[in-house]
Specification:
215 residues, alpha+beta
Length: 215
């Protein structure tokens, strides 16, 4: 996937085929198809409403929330809201520069869909996190900024080492009208990443290994 234009081909992950299994055990009269249909009913409309509601969070707490224009769009032009991402800043990292589009990054991340009937916090479709989000217990992924979907690469280009954000990406800057090739992310999905930038390196440079930095 592409979080990568590949996280979805690399980060377009765990199958949604398992969705509704618990409901089938509880309601044996329902077919698998009926259960899954209910999970994703009016999915496009629900995702559009969810993303629109993030403007209220920004207005209520502008010191923690930010709306960022997609890196490929000109700031001199007026744009529709679906050309922006929203970020909630959970923890500030170091002062310094941010990755460029051509850089490589090392990150900890977890990707979810919006909340749904079975998944109150959103279906987890991919990530390096096992249990609670923590730099001490999570794995990392190393990838090219340019190899990710536009919303994800936009966030990375505004982060600094150690920044810990929750990133909300509209479908237009994610997997669009088709969803992920593997079927784990439905069409028109807002994708939500809890994301921490551990390190990055410029093109042609070596990035320190994660284990040596952690120790």
């Amino acid at each position: 996937m592409r979080i990568i234009k590949t996280i979805a081909r690399l980060f377009k992950p765990l199958p949604l085929g398992g969705v509704g299994v618990g409901l089938l055990l509880l309601f044996t009269s329902c077919t698998k198809e009926e259960t899954e249909a209910g999970e994703w009913d009016n999915w496009q409309e629900r995702n559009e409403a969810y993303f629109a509601s993030l403007a209220d969070s920004l207005n209520a707490n502008p010191s923690q929330w930010q709306r960022i224009l997609c890196f490929s769009q000109s700031p001199a032009t007026n744009h529709d809201t679906d050309k922006y991402i929203y970020v909630k800043k959970l923890e500030n990292g170091e002062d310094g520069e941010s990755p460029a589009y051509t850089d490589s990054v090392r990150i900890i991340y977890q990707g979810r869909l919006i909340p749904s009937a079975t998944f109150a916090e959103g279906y987890v479709f991919d990530g390096t996190v096992f249990g609670k989000f923590s730099t001490a217990t999570s794995s990392t992924a190393k990838l090219l900024v340019s190899g990710t979907v536009d919303g994800f690469s936009t966030a990375l280009q505004h982060m600094r080492r150690g920044d810990h954000w929750r990133v909300y990406i509209p479908s237009t800057l994610g997997y669009g009208e088709e969803g992920s090739g593997s079927g784990t992310i439905p069409a028109y999905s807002v994708i939500i990443f809890e994301l921490q930038l551990i390190d990055f390196s410029h093109a042609g440079e070596m990035m320190p290994v994660w284990s040596s930095r952690r120790n």
